[in-house]
Amino acid sequence: MKELINNIRGRHLKLTVLGSGYVGLPTAALFAKAGFYVTAIDKKPEVVTAVNNGASHINEPGLCELVSQNVKAGRLKAKVNNIDALKVEGAIIISVQTPINENKRPNLGFLIRAVRNIGKNLNKGMLVVIGSTIPPGTMATKVKPILESLSNLKADEEFYLAYVPERIAPGKALKEFVESPRLVGGIGNNSTRVAAELFGSVCKKVIETNAAVAEVAKVAENTYRDVNIAFANELALLCEKIGVDVIDVVNLANTHPRVNIHMPGPGVGGPCLPKDPYLLINSSKKIQNVLIKTARRVNDYMPKHIVELTLSALRETGKDIKKSKIAILGAAYKNNVDDSRLSPSEKVSDELFNLCGEVRIFDPCCNASFRVKKVLTLTEALKDADCLVIMTDHKEFFNLDIQEISRLMGVKPAIVDGRRIMNNKEVTKYFFYSAVGLGKSNN
Ligand code: SAJ
After folding, report:
1. pTM, rounded to two decimals
2. Quick one: pLDDT at residue 442?
């Protein structure tokens, strides 16, 4: 253990990061920046080629520069995933995807395959870190026994094993990797110590715990956010019926020192929040998990609500739905990212595509267009459109020129604001305006 810690302190430790995606590549690049010799492994040859050419396949602020600098300095290289690439020494951080299947059950196939391959090549004194989000209990019941039985080595004594969940949000990955306190949960005290030493060389603050607690804490964080957003969304639906604006309500309620209601919106997307609550509840079949499941249902309903608001806006403005032209702003699952994974915009685009005459989508950050027509400018999106549907709050969509938009759109234009980025008073002068949580006042 002393030798491993000295190797970390002296930056002699060889580090491998398995999975070079949204989390793995920033991880590899930041450890290389801290002075380690890092090999990033990925199953996609094009990702490996890009990294070895000093580029990043992910659009993350600062990442391309960081990859380029460290490849040039000889501290970062990439390899295609195969059994030879996994014959590693030093430490390995596993950052592969852990999705859910159609039945909302965790699919740990990628992780277990990786753990098996590492187990077959594990050497005495190595550190194995799991960074992927996992269902509670996975370290003790799956990862540890697989590694021990395939290597014939004892965890926490002959090799070290820790769960160190990531906490980075796309768009702020590099900053959050360094600045967010990092949970380090070893399978035993030695493993916690060694992993804390490694992550402490890049992260400003590490919090030592054990693997079992870290597993639950990680999925609890994302489930808390999902449940909070579901509450905001349900409040929004209520405010529409009551006749008040949910934004006023949330802002006022949040002046209470112990209240922090999140923002309602057109649904919850991305690679984590729609999935992680299921990783948490799948860990026990004995409990009904009514709250967490209901929150998921509320958030999953929101894209449907946006479609209903759109259809009702078209009716109110006297349009024939089947002939109507719709302009959708935003394909990304959240603001200022190019990521469309599980984006609520996909569900809205698909439904409107089935119901309306023509649907176009414009997103200055993200290439996805789902089943609908992608346009490259706002003007193209708006031309003669009957309804503008705002799905993502990219900075480019703030301060739109309302008069110019109304001039470009068809007669009696409508706006459905899923992100509450429009100024209610100004927009209603030119448009039929409806928005998530905006109740029409009776007084
Ligand atoms: N959203 C709302 N209202 C809000 C906040 C978010 O509707 O008030 C929506 C967003 O528009 C988006 C979805 O929720 O569609 C998820 O966005 P997000 O910003 O909450 O989260 P992610 O998926 O980008 O990143 C989350 C983060 N977790 C928490 O904030 C607790 C991040 O720190 C994690 O590292 C990441 O999940 C992960 O990988 O687990």
Report:
1. 0.95
2. 56
